[in-house]
Specification:
It contains four helices and ten strands. By secondary structure, the chain is of the alpha+beta class. It has two domains: 53 residues, no CATH class; 101 residues, LytTr DNA-binding domain (OB fold (Dihydrolipoamide Acetyltransferase, E2P), Beta Barrel), CATH 2.40.50.1020. A five-stranded antiparallel sheet has the order 5-4-3-7-6, with no helix packed on it. Strands 8-9-10 form a three-stranded antiparallel sheet, with no helix packed on it. A two-stranded antiparallel sheet has the order 1-2. The longest helix has 17 residues. The radius of gyration is 19 Å and the shape is globular. The two termini are 34 Å apart.
Length: 169
C-alpha cells in the first residue's frame, strides 16, 4: 500500500535478474519521458532512493519517539526531538540534549534503524545529528566541515564521507 501511496512505477524482488531490472529501467524511462520536468523528478527519485538505502526502515513500523537514558544514578525519558545528536563512545552512546549529556547502551546502527531518517542524519561514523537543530555549516581552510547547532548548543564535525548531505546548505 505504501508503494501505491508513493506513486511507485515498479518494484523489484530479490534475487534481481538482468531481465527484470531492464524492464524496470524501461518503465522508469517511459514515465520520465511523460512528465514535464524529468530531470527534477529523477533527482528527487534518486535522492529518495539514496536516503532509504542509507537508512532502511521496516514498513509500518513507527519511529522511535523516546529515549531512556542515564545521567549519574538517574534515568531520564527524553523525547527524541530534544536530542541534538548521538555520539558513539566505546561501549556506550552519548545522547546530547540541551540539558546535557546522557548515556545509553544502544549502538548507532540500532538507533539508525529506529530513528526517522528525515530527522537524524549520520554525519560521521560515530555521530548521528538531529537536522532540526542544525543552524549552519562551515568549512575551514583544510576543507573540514563543522555543523553549528542552534541556541549555542555546540558544534558537530562532519566527515568527508558525509559532506555531500550538506551541498545544498
Amino acid at each position: 500500500m505504501e508503494a501505491f501511496e508513493r506513486e511507485a512505477i515498479d518494484y523489484l524482488l530479490k534475487p534481481v535478474t538482468d531481465e527484470r531490472l531492464t524492464k524496470t529501467i524501461d518503465r522508469l524511462k517511459r514515465n520520465l519521458n511523460e512528465t514535464a520536468e524529468p530531470g527534477a523528478q529523477l533527482a528527487r527519485l534518486f535522492a529518495d532512493f539514496a536516503q532509504r538505502a542509507a537508512h532502511p526502515s521496516v514498513p509500518g513500523k513507527a519511529h522511535l519517539r523516546w529515549i531512556r537514558a542515564s545521567r549519574g544514578q538517574t534515568t531520564y525519558q527524553i523525547p527524541v526531538e530534544d536530542v541534538l545528536y548521538f555520539q558513539a563512545d566505546e561501549k556506550y552512546t552519548i545522547v546530547m540534549t540541551s540539558a546535557g549529556e546522557h548515556t545509553i547502551r544502544t549502538s548507532l546502527t540500532e538507533l539508525l534503524a529506529e530513528l526517522d531518517p528525515d530527522t537524524f542524519w549520520q554525519v560521521h561514523r560515530s555521530t548521528l545529528v538531529n537536522v532540526n537543530w542544525i543552524e549552519s555549516s562551515r568549512r575551514n581552510a583544510q576543507g573540514q566541515m563543522t555543523l553549528n547547532l542552534k541556541q549555542g548548543a555546540g558544534e558537530v564535525s562532519v566527515s568527508r564521507a558525509y559532506m555531500h548531505l550538506f551541498k545544498q546548505m
